[in-house]
Please model this.
Amino acid sequence: MADVLIAPSILSADFARLGEEVRAIDSAGADWIHVDVMDGHFVPNLTIGPDVVKALRPHTAKVMDVHLMIAPVDPFIPAFAAAGADIITVHAEAGAHLDRSLQLIRSLGKRAGVSLNPGTPETVLEYVLDRLDLILVMSVNPGFGGQAFIPAMVEKTKRIKAMIGDRKITIEVDGGVNPTTAPEVVAAGATALVAGSAVFGGDYAERIAAIRDSCASL
Ligand code: DX5
Ligand code: ZN
Model:
């Protein structure tokens, strides 16, 4: 049975009750809490900053998986680390110095991730693999929840899986993940799944279990 980590994205939560929502997904069986940070510049939407991550930190002991969709990103990494993020993921497209960003994240004692937009080839990872704890494959164009999964990202996930070899790097897929698409990406090599609308659109425990169960026979 595939051991899959489910990371509900609080982008689809009720922002007026975020602390309560984080506690609810924690007790509903979430493995990680996925936090989408958007700057209205790198992506066409605005969400939250490090103060919100800091305010949410006492509400869960689970891994806070912070996805930074911001450019420039380096000036904000220390604030997210101090706020209590466990994983800090930056976009390969967000700056000219990906290797430097990854070194900075690890120097702050955090797990370092790189995210790739759907149009970005996995080859940009080739020379930073040894600085990575996580690769976040975007299976929608970042900016909004509730978009349709892009099927070509299954092949990209397979290529990334082959590329990382026996390194201990988590492959996480983000965007349009539901009980139909989850088994496809897990079969391709993903071991962590972000799900926003698929979790928050109903009973959280049932929705998380449905995604997990969809991959159970793999
Ligand atoms: C999109 C975000 C995702 C988003 C996923 O930019 O990175 O984490 O919340 O939402 P769903 O699961 O609804 O596609
Ligand atoms: Zn995300």
Summary: The pocket of zinc ion (ligand 2) is lined by residues 9, 34, 36, 67, 174, 194 (CB under 6 Å). Residues 45 and 143 are 6 Å apart (CA to CA). DSSP finds eight helices and eight strands in the chain. The two ends are 6 Å apart (CA to CA).
